[in-house]
Predict the structure.
Amino acid sequence: MATFKLIEYQDASPEVRAIYDDIMATRKIDWINNFWKGIAHDPATLKRTWESIKQIMAPGALDALTKELLYIAVSVTNNCSYCIASHTASARDNLSASSPLRTASSNVLPSYTEPAIACPCRTRAIALHGTADGGHGARRGAASRCGWE
């Protein structure tokens, strides 16, 4: 299987950095996950994919939480631990503090602040995501996004 280096922010072209900046600003985060770093080898694909995701996740008939839950369902169907972890974290982030699902979710959605089991991403990390950390990427010393480590 061919592998390639992920495009880190500091190594990115100005075009890719602009897209990374938009991703971070839109998602209100301070890091870029490995999904985006992996497709950044082709800036046109990166831009097209990000624009598509922004359109999908924009306000509409379904709220952001429902969309993330659909992403989780597809990720489970595709048996992608990386995607399951990423969309689970995003779903948890979309739960409002007053939502009755916030309490219920602790029994359904894995917590990424309180590890429960060994991260499934590690077992196939190199083959699936090209990195030993399961594709999570560094978060300045914090636990991985899924927290299953």
